[in-house]
From TrEMBL, chains A, B:
<protein>
    <submittedName>
        <fullName>Related to Aprataxin-like protein</fullName>
    </submittedName>
</protein>
<dbReference type="Pfam" id="PF11969">
    <property type="entry name" value="DcpS_C"/>
</dbReference>
<dbReference type="GO" id="GO:0005634">
    <property type="term" value="C:nucleus"/>
</dbReference>
<feature type="domain" description="Aprataxin C2HE/C2H2/C2HC zinc finger">
    <location>
        <begin position="133"/>
        <end position="188"/>
    </location>
</feature>
<dbReference type="GO" id="GO:0003697">
    <property type="term" value="F:single-stranded DNA binding"/>
</dbReference>
<dbReference type="Pfam" id="PF16278">
    <property type="entry name" value="zf-C2HE"/>
</dbReference>
<dbReference type="InterPro" id="IPR036265">
    <property type="entry name" value="HIT-like_sf"/>
</dbReference>
<dbReference type="InterPro" id="IPR032566">
    <property type="entry name" value="Znf-C2HE"/>
</dbReference>
<dbReference type="GO" id="GO:0000012">
    <property type="term" value="P:single strand break repair"/>
</dbReference>
<dbReference type="GO" id="GO:0030983">
    <property type="term" value="F:mismatched DNA binding"/>
</dbReference>
<dbReference type="GO" id="GO:0003725">
    <property type="term" value="F:double-stranded RNA binding"/>
</dbReference>
<dbReference type="GO" id="GO:1990165">
    <property type="term" value="F:single-strand break-containing DNA binding"/>
</dbReference>
<dbReference type="GO" id="GO:0033699">
    <property type="term" value="F:DNA 5'-adenosine monophosphate hydrolase activity"/>
</dbReference>
Amino acid sequence: MSWKYVLKGYIVNPTSENTLFYDDSCVIIKDSFPKAKYHLLILPRDHKITIKDPKTLTFKEKSRYEKYIVWAKNYILETSKSNGGFDNNIKINDIRVGIHYVPSLANLHIHVITNDFVSDKLKYPKHYKAFNGPFFVDWDQLPLPPPYLTSKEAEMKYIKLQPLKCSHCDYPFKNLPTLKKHLKQEWETKKN
Amino acid sequence: MSWKYVLKGYIVNPTSENTLFYDDSCVIIKDSFPKAKYHLLILPRDHKITIKDPKTLTFKEKSRYEKYIVWAKNYILETSKSNGGFDNNIKINDIRVGIHYVPSLANLHIHVITNDFVSDKLKYPKHYKAFNGPFFVDWDQLPLPPPYLTSKEAEMKYIKLQPLKCSHCDYPFKNLPTLKKHLKQEWETKKN
DNA sequence: GAATCATAAC
DNA sequence: GAATCATAAC
Ligand SMILES: Nc1ncnc2c1ncn2[C@@H]1O[C@H](COP(=O)(O)O)[C@@H](O)[C@H]1O
Ligand SMILES: Nc1ncnc2c1ncn2[C@@H]1O[C@H](COP(=O)(O)O)[C@@H](O)[C@H]1O
Ligand SMILES: [Zn+2]
Ligand SMILES: [Zn+2]
């Protein structure tokens, strides 16, 4: 199985180190390269759904997965609460749910991620911009009506040309290391 | 002043956020991008010395800086001891002293670094290999007799072709993330 | 030296 | 998608 289909493994055989929950419709896993303190993926198992462009999810299709989103959010809230008081500042509104305008991995997946973006795995500007700006399509915006940018166009307009702004205060940063330092400070501030 | 001479600032005006010690002969600073838990730089202020290729430091020249090496090592041992018991596993033999075969920054500087190599700033294979393998020339090997590899040759032979082996157990790793994970484990193990 | 971007090969 | 390497521009 090529890297593009690496998420298929979870759908076919849901038992894994990363698996937090599964039933006949869904598998919920921890993202292996979390771009924030909490970063889960919801993977619909239905073949009709897993092969879809997530931008085109219908309201009917979406309705089937709402409860898994609730589960994932609740998992984050509860887990952070019980994490020795370290993460007890996470609120429901700190959690983002959505998809990438152009996913890299083939099987449809829904990101559920906290808005701290404090993570060692966040290494490149694209990692941040993919969750902050138009490349991140909020669950509530789906289905996103056509026309769609091509992959090249989206890369340019929705990633490369986007500024690096703090997810909390909108302050623009010249580069990723300074933004990351600031995000760490935002996180530490919230803790107190 | 171009990036190549950024260390000159410390020599000209030793008072800075990073400065730990200075006198007429030397400035000792914290490396701004530490590649391990403790990473200091010793900067000779003597113009004749600062412009030298460090590989050619004579025994006579070296003798002038021995005491600053002692100071730097002692600083690391004492600081780690007083760091709330977090780093109290650092021993004198965990500290490496030396220079890079081909320095990037112009003013002669001596690295004093712990062998944990646990650091967010260690981002590329070269960062690790520059301290582990022939690219790192130990203080005790100086002066290094000619002939010298060219910069290109050193980059190939002393960096690119070198394996990524653990500084503690010599185990070879396929890539930097797996090595970093292992180094973190080595560090945590030593702590206990 | 650091940071960004493009490009293979997986 | 991740990881490595080469390449500008600072
Ligand atoms: N083997 C894996 N297991 C779990 N998550 C993964 C794996 N490989 C990549 N990912 C994550 O999958 C997501 C795919 O992103 P995207 O296709 O852009 O929506 C990213 O957040 C990756 O970190
Ligand atoms: N502005 C700076 N202040 C302090 N250290 C620095 C600065 N810029 C780079 N460095 C460090 O200087 C060292 C130069 O490495 P090298 O020239 O390869 O011996 C590296 O360890 C860098 O992290
Ligand atoms: Zn902010
Ligand atoms: Zn080891």
